[in-house]
Design a protein that fits this description.
Length: 88
């Protein structure tokens, strides 16, 4: 699940929980949906940070920028890993 999708789903569930608690005669359903939202938030967590796995010495910022321009959607770490020299 992508970060934007995860955020959208969590916001939609939180909104539904608030509306159910405020508008329904039985606020238990809102509390239930709110509990599901909290569980989903805890289970999905945040993405793990990326690591640079190559020797990046001598790599110019201009090369990284050009690589990212040629490959849209690539992160800085991905570009450095693609352009750097393998560690020995």
């Amino acid at each position: 699940m992508g970060k934007s999708t995860r955020t959208s789903v969590l916001l939609a569930l939180a909104t539904a929980a608030i509306l159910l608690m405020a508008l329904s005669e039985e606020p238990t359903w809102g509390l239930l949906v709110g509990s599901w939202t909290l569980m989903l938030w805890g289970w999905t967590g945040s993405p793990k940070p990326q690591e640079i796995t190559v020797d990046a010495q001598g790599l110019s910022p201009r090369d990284v920028k050009e690589y990212r321009r040629q490959h849209p959607g690539v992160t800085m770490v991905d570009a450095i890993n693609a352009l750097g020299k393998p560690r020995r």
